[in-house]
Specification:
Blueprint: H1 2-11, H2 32-56, H3 63-87, E1 88-89, E2 92-95, E3 98-99, H4 107-113, H5 116-132, E4 136-137, H6 141-148, H7 152-160, E5 164-168, E6 171-176, H8 189-198, H9 202-210, H10 217-221, H11 249-257
Length: 264
């Protein structure tokens, strides 16, 4: 099924479809690199299983089938790796003459797939653009309703604290921060902070983790949260306020921040 479905679709894919994006990422669009990473992981699993079967059941009548599967998976693995490295090369993100918006929630996947020299160049370019981009307004209905229900004094305080955009047409909009915020989904949050620290951008990771603005961990704490929420945005009637959804940061804190790691 994978052999029929994925290679042709990936060859011409430009990031505009729906499917394998990261859950609860602030930009949960379907993304080119997420697709390819998923496919790579899947075919590597097929290759591993086929190889194990060949080695451990050498006299099976299915050996020829397993050898064929191993050969195809190995070839497809090389093909997809080549495609990825041909796209993410240097400081320009492009594929089939269509510019990509950037690494987005794929930062962690990118760090583990693309080779070293191109990875460093592209990562620095991405961080530079992320550091200089403008904040956006968050369109969430529940957040907007909450902030617009506040009295004028509280709204003014939040505007001065850069949590809200100034009132326009008698309506305030929550400010969505791109620099001092997390923005990753539940999959990428496991890798983003570790990647930033390992690549020499530990200060960026710290600023994202400790920022009090939306979306992020500090934003939860600004509402007196003592446990992790199920979503980045505040919810009073739908999402849990005690959930492991973004708990992967708990691995980064003792390892990269406190310096406690397992002995090799």
């Amino acid at each position: 099924g994978m052999e029929r479905k994925y290679p042709g679709a990936l060859q011409n894919y430009k990031g505009g479809g729906s499917g394998l994006g990261d859950w609860l990422a602030m930009m949960p669009r379907d993304s080119w690199l997420t697709h390819h990473a998923f496919y790579l992981a899947s075919i590597r699993a097929v290759a591993y299983l086929a190889n194990q079967l060949i080695q451990k059941v050498p006299n099976s009548d299915k050996k020829e089938h397993w050898e064929s599967s191993l050969k195809k998976a190995t070839e497809k693995n090389a093909e997809i790796e080549t495609m990825i490295r041909s796209v993410y090369k240097g400081s320009i993100f492009s594929y089939s003459n269509h510019n990509l918006e950037g690494l987005g929630q794929n930062l962690g996947l990118f760090s583990r797939i693309v080779n070293g020299t191109d990875r460093c160049t592209t990562l620095r370019s991405w961080l530079n653009s992320a550091a200089n981009c403008r904040d956006r307004s968050w369109p969430g209905d529940e957040e907007a309703a909450f902030y617009n229900s506040l009295n004028a004094k509280d709204q003014e305080e939040l505007i001065n604290g850069r949590n809200l955009f100034p009132k326009r047409n008698n309506v305030v909009k929550p400010r969505w921060h791109l620099r001092y915020a997390v923005n990753s989904g539940i999959l990428d949050v496991k890798y983003t902070f570790k990647t930033l620290s390992d690549m020499g951008f530990h200060d960026i990771g710290l600023s994202k983790a400790s920022g009090n603005h939306f979306p992020g961990y500090g934003y939860m704490m600004s509402f007196n949260a003592t446990t992790l929420w199920e979503t980045w945005w505040r919810s009073e009637d739908l999402y849990s306020h005690n959930h492991p959804m973004f708990g992967a940061i708990g691995e980064w804190l003792p390892s990269s921040v406190a310096g406690i790691t397992l002995e090799p």
